[in-house]
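thought: fold this chain, then report.
action: predict
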Amino acid sequence: MTVSLPLVLVLGAVAWIAIKFMGVRLWVAVVIALFGFWLAHTGLAPSVESGTRSGVDSVNEQHD
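observation:
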């Protein structure tokens, strides 16, 4: 059975778990999210996207 989840949903769940159970402060999660938002508007964005895609692809290949 194949389940397809958007990466943003998975990252949101990880952030919620970190805030709820690991004691990460909400303001820290907000700062990290803003950093990612602003990083997406720089020249590093294509490298981050390609690295994320290759990481997700490698995980998906292992489970085929």
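thought: worth noting. The CA atoms of residues 13 and 19 lie 10 Å apart.
final: tokens above.
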